[in-house]
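User: Hi! I'm a student and our assignment asks us to look at how structure tokens line up with a sequence. Could you show me two examples?

Assistant: Happy to help. In each example below, the sequence comes first and the structure tokens follow. Example one:
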Amino acid sequence: MRRRVLVTGLGLVTSLASDVKLFWKRLLAGESGISRIEHFDTAGFPVQIAGEVKDFDPTAYLPKHEVRHLDRFSQMAVAAAVQAVEHTGLDLANVEDPFCVGAIVGSGIGGLAEFEAQHKRLLERGPTKVSPFMVPKLMINAAAGQISICYGIKGPNAGVANACASASNAIGQAFWVIQNEEADVMIAGGAEAALTPLGLAGFCANRALSTRNDEPERASRPFDRDRDGFVLSEGAGIVVLEEYEHAKRRGAEPLAELIGFGMSGDGLHIVQPDPDGKGAASALRQMLQDASADADSVDYINAHGTGTPLGDVAETKAVKTIFGDHAKKLAISSTKSSVGHLLGASGGVELIATVLALRNQVAPPTINLENPDPECDLDYVPLKARQMPIRRAASNAFGFGGQNACLLLQKI
């Protein structure tokens, strides 16, 4: 019999808030974290808005001498991990067996800012001036590695690069690790800091982003007829997963139980989703099978819902394929409408929103959903949060490359 896995800690860094309680309050109030970009000059860019984290101070979580050796995405990962671990009440610095605690953290792109900075140094000052910290700062596994170093934990440790499904894949793999008795506690999620000149230019070039520069707060509009692309964001979302008996012995407060994980590939196109949502449907099917759960037992889905013309329709079709007549009874919302798309960190932040939805029995809203797309004809909780009974809740994440990952939680 597989071991049960609980969520016992939450931590995040987002443009909406970098505190879980404040994040939830603002999310339910229908607020937006999207604004004009301030970190760099956007003159000449067709997109000048993003979910930029403006109040982040890494020295609140790390010594100054360590901060300068970490890219922004790793700094945010550590910050979210510290919040999550503190939330659990675990004293990881004095854990009895450090090999029973691990970390798996995803990122779609990794240390892009460091890559840009060192490439500029190479061109302007020559190869001998490139920093020896370049590779350790930009590598995607740096986030998981740094978290393990911070706490001295020696259990399963990995970095996951699966585009926008990275954090969900990381959490799913951590779930499996605990089920299979390879660890008792896992720190898992994702971090992303691709909001740089090169990152923004790249997404502008593939025409994936909303160009609603004059109305930043209204730019992210999943499932709306007038959507024109996603809003690029940065941040991190980290959860602590804990084996049921381990949590029970120490009197931990369970936030939710993670019961299923499914993953698949579209096998079709490097950036466009399967128009019929077949790959996404497969991941949802596997998630339910993994949990031995009936489709009718799910009450809420935190959608991938990026606000792209193709993606939102494909996700709608996938949900209909798997949930059948029950699809019309589901409450579905996209929290990207408030925080934008955090790429490889999205699944972590959105699983936290899903845990909070279960915990508080409230479905957060899809803001800016003013003119529903006729092809997106499910209940997407438009504009206002909804108090409702939620027994089980899913979180969807679909990424470039055709990667799909779905997680299922239940109330406890």
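Example two works the same way, sequence first and then tokens:
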Amino acid sequence: MKKLKQRSVSAGNILQNGTSETLRNKTVVIEENVLIKENVLTKENVKPISIHVPKHLKPLNDNQFGHYLAGLIDGNGHFNSKQQLVIVFHSLDVSLAYFIKKRLGFGTVKKVKNKNVFILVIAARKGLEKVINLINGKIRTESKFSQITNNILSQGNYNEFRKNINFKFNLDTDLKNHWLAGFSDADASFQIKRINRNNKIEVILIFQIDQKNDDILRLIKDFIGGNIRYRKNQDTYYYGSTSFGSAKKVINYFDHFHLLSTKHINYLKWRKAYLIIQNKDPLNKYGIEKIIKLKNTMNRLSDTTV
């Protein structure tokens, strides 16, 4: 590899118009005053991913679908006192609502007045029993588990069903299934951030999830890496992965367990940005322009609370 001229400064080594493959934990300055953070240009930290995107598939069997559905409910569903399951979808994801309805064979999809939101409501006893069978042993949030036991299984018209099911909470830390895909379709976001600092540009790939408590976020952090922080003014926690090591783990997961909402499109653009960095295209302004174009075409779904 051609040696490049470099000079030492207090923050580390700055390489003009290039970098060494042995560089670790340094900041790299490249032409056109473009700065890429997190060791974008080192083989050690930006581990290669396949340029080929796996064929997009929906969960193939009831076990896979059950994990996905449990994740979706943990993120954006609730079992109310009217003995109904309500799952909330952004209007861009109404096709996902209809897919879930068709897969279950039960439910009604409704538009929420004055909001960009649709809801899937399952009220039929047989429909709820089917859902509970599918997600048994797969639900991970205590609030949803309590809603099922208190609002559904404790009711008199579910006596026979309750006798024949041992409804369990999922305490398994293994996330190598479709649960995180469903949970991410409900609550996650893929972001490409460009930060101007001292006439330079930082490009960061972020996978983020916001929650009212940090139980689930700690599980995800242990699986992918990243950080959990608390917003005092909103009384919420948020998980974020910003390193390229974590991004590689995110890609490994979602290449295998596919998102079913429009977030899948955002994910593919986020993944493409990683490939641009992996291929060292940011060494010139055209690579950065590609990344910024991807960033500007990613949709940001608004709040889906009802």
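Here is something you could point out in your write-up. Residues 263-278 form the longest helix (16 residues).
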